[in-house]
Amino acid sequence: MKTPSPHVLFCSLAFCLTGCGGSSGPASPVSPAPPGSTAVVPPQGNYSPNWKSHMSAGDEALRQHRYPQAEKQYLAALAEAEKFGPDDPLVARTLHCLADALRGQQRYAEAEKLVKRSLTIKEKTMAPDNPNLAPTLTSLALLAQDQQHYEEAESLHKRTIELLEKSNGTGDNEVGAALNRLGELYMTEGKYREAEASFERALASWEKSWGADHPQLIVVLINLGKARMQLDRPADAEPLFARAAILAEKRLLPDHPLLAESLENQAEALRKAGKTEEAAKLQARAQAIRVKKPGSGK
To answer: Which residues does 90 contact at the CB level (< 8 Å), separation at least 6?
Structure first.
């Protein structure tokens, strides 16, 4: 199996309350819990600066895809967190980030055990429908996918969506992201009609949350178009790829890979519709972007 892309690693998606791999660095172990969280704020102690130091080092290594080094730092942070008790919220946070480092090394079964332990800790202090469980459930779903346990992954994704919709409503960016992940799972399984429905819901959610011209929509527009291509509906797919390309041109760099991908998919849809000349022009534009160094303009 392939190493997961950095953008789907658990904590780089801000799933971990400590912000593993994120740009903001770890949260202070003595800072107030996030709104709606039932986490107990631990008192200050001698271990706190050490925990924060190890977490910061782990986050930096994770950002640089140095997964063994991240693992080493998160293990040291876990030892510090466990001094406050095996069920302390800091333990749950650290376990989640350690799992991220293991997933980057394709050690999926080990990572899954850590995330399950993190979920067990959280479930002791949170109601079953608490939306703060969603990041951990998503992590478990992704690990199930990594191991091709698709039925389990689907169940976990659906539980995540249910929690988030109940808490945040349907027009929410997190709901949209969860629906998009479910759609990607369906694509992997070859369930293209289910994927189309999930991507349609994701698109509607993100449009309501962010507006019709947000660059985040590019990803789900491409995904929805691909689902319709698999259903042999190029005429329905082409406008989605065209919209994605327009958004990419408007909101991203002129040589962004997502623009190339949008153009390539639009060209393929046009070819299947018999519009070969127009398709060739778009394919040439995409190829010109591909041969450039992204962001160089050359």
So the answer is: 29, 42, 51, 81, 84
Predicted structure pTM score: 0.81
Which residues make Cβ contacts (< 8 Å) with residue 159, sequence separation at least 6?
137
Q: What is the pLDDT of residues 58-73, one digit of tens each?
A: 999 999 999 999 999 9
Q: Give me the DSSP letters along 89-143.
A: HHHHHHHHHHHHHHHHTT-HHHHHHHHHHHHHHHHHHS-TT-GGGHHHHHHHHHH
From the list 29, 188, 6, the residue with the least C-alpha distance to 94 is 29
Report how far Cα 214 is from the mean position of its chain's Cα atoms: 17
| Spans of all domains in the chain | 1-126
User: At a CB cut-off of 8 Å and minimum separation 6, what does 49 contact?
Assistant: none
> What is the rounded distance in angstroms from the CA atom of residue 21 to the CA atom of residue 70?
9
CATH number of the 1-126 domain? 1.25.40
